[in-house]
Specification:
This protein has about 300 residues and is of the alpha/beta class. About 35% of the residues lie in helices and about 25% in strands. It has nine helices and ten strands. Strands 1, 2, 3, 4, 5, 6 and 7 form a seven-stranded mixed β-sheet that branches. The protein has a three-stranded mixed β-sheet with strand order 8-9-10. The longest helix has 18 residues. The relative contact order is 0.14.
Length: about 300
């Protein structure tokens, strides 16, 4: 009997939630970097095989908000928890339960849904450390299963999918079998550009940037998509960092982003990037709504 359901992935910032989701669906939809709070929106993706359809919800890392953007990100997590049939909590190589983990466990422990703890990044630490982490979390009696894996190395991904399907109930195929995400191409394109900027920029800049797609259209009678995008930053000093000496940094961001966007769209891309200063945009409700960071937005 065919099964289906919604699975939410939660955890502290930078434990590998987006990497895990991308590994399970076999496509890069949610962006990845080693910077905390890379994911800002709740992102819904779809895995389908002959047995089941799993709708995954990747969420921002749970953290103490410092601005309107941070509050939006935590709201995205709360709404994702409400939508789930199975919950996956990720932790990583730290061999003790930290305050962030305890906060999440307190938030979810009384939920009736099935809960799976995934100990990620096991390629980075020993078998003994894995056992110790599992024992630490098991004391809380909050999880139905504990599964070690390495999302980036694709170790344990198939086991996790089988475990999820085991817990799902019979249900319909909500989306066509070749459907991957409910996010529009413009959103994925903006996220790809932001990911490349995160990879190229210094520590003080990443959380202060956003991507605004001004134009995205196919050129008539040609296999070419023209994209014009702005990298928003909060300070004049940040603008010069993003551009780099002789424009090298923004050129590198553009080249790297264009290659991924071309793979996504299956056509050639003419990508033009510009840098705009927008002070305190993370506390500007109008700009947050324009950029898609709106608590009222049902994503």
């Amino acid at each position: 009997m065919f099964k289906s359901g919604f699975v939410t992935i939660i955890g502290r910032p930078n434990v590998g939630k987006s990497t895990l989701m991308n590994s399970m669906i076999g496509e890069k939809i949610s962006i990845m970097s080693d910077k905390p709070q890379t994911t800002r929106n709740k992102i819904r993706t779809v895995y389908t095989d002959d047995e089941a359809q799993i709708i995954f919800l990747d969420t921002p890392g749970i953290h103490k908000p410092k601005n309107q953007l941070g509050e939006f990100m935590n709201t995205e997590v709360d709404s994702a928890i409400e939508e789930m049939d199975v919950l996956i909590m990720l932790t990583d190589e730290f061999n003790k339960v930290g305050p962030g983990d305890e906060f999440i466990i307190e938030k979810i422990k009384d939920l009736k849904t099935k809960k799976i703890l995934v100990i990620n990044k096991i390629d980075k630490f020993s078998q003994e450390a894995v056992v110790k982490i599992a024992q630490e979390f098991d004391k809380y009696k909050a999880f139905d299963d504990i599964l070690p894996m390495s999302a980036i190395k694709n170790v344990g991904v198939d086991s996790l999918i089988k475990l999820i399907i085991k817990y799902l109930k019979p249900g319909p195929m909500y989306f066509p079998s070749d459907y991957i995400t409910d996010r529009p191409e413009r959103f994925v394109v903006s996220e790809i550009i932001r990911e490349k900027a995160l990879l190229y920029l210094n520590e003080e800049v990443p959380h202060g940037i956003a991507i605004e797609i001004e134009e995205m259209k196919e050129r008539k009678n040609k296999d070419l998509v023209d994209i014009r995008a702005n990298i928003l930053c909060e300070k004049k000093s940040h603008k010069s960092i993003i551009i780099g000496k002789d424009g090298r940094k923004i050129k590198g961001i553009g080249k790297s982003a264009r290659e991924d966007i071309e793979r996504l769209l299956g056509s050639q891309v003419n990508l033009q990037l510009f840098v705009k200063i927008s002070e305190n945009w993370r506390d500007n409700n109008y700009l947050l709504r324009t950029l898609g960071y709106d608590k009222r937005h049902d994503s």
